[in-house]
User: What shape does this take?
Amino acid sequence: MKKLLAAMAASAVVLSAVPAFASSVKGTVIAYDRMAKRLVLDDKTVYSFEADIVMPESLTAGDEVEIDFESGEDGVDKVNSVTIVTEEEDS
Assistant: This one.
C-alpha cells in the first residue's frame, strides 16, 4: 500500500510539472513604470519583472524593445531581459 501511494504521489508530481519555454516578443513601449516594475507594449500586454532584471537606463515610451521571457501554462512566468532594439538590429 505504501508503494502504491508513493507511486501515485510521484506520478502526480511528474504530471503537474509544466515545462517552461523560452520565448521573446518585440513591440513599442507605451508605458514604463520603473517603481512598479511594469512595462506595457503597444499591443496592451503588461510585463512585470523582478528587481534583479537590469533595465536599460534610457528606456522610455516610444522605444522599440525585445523582451525575452519564460512562458508556462499561465502565460509569462519570468522576464529574463529587456533590450532596446536599434534600427540597425531591426534590419
About this structure: Residues 14 and 30 are 40 Å apart (CA to CA). The first helix runs from residue 2 to 16. Strands lie at 21-33, 38-41, 46-48, 64-72, 75-84. The domain at 20-90 is CATH 2.40.50.320 (OB fold (Dihydrolipoamide Acetyltransferase, E2P)).
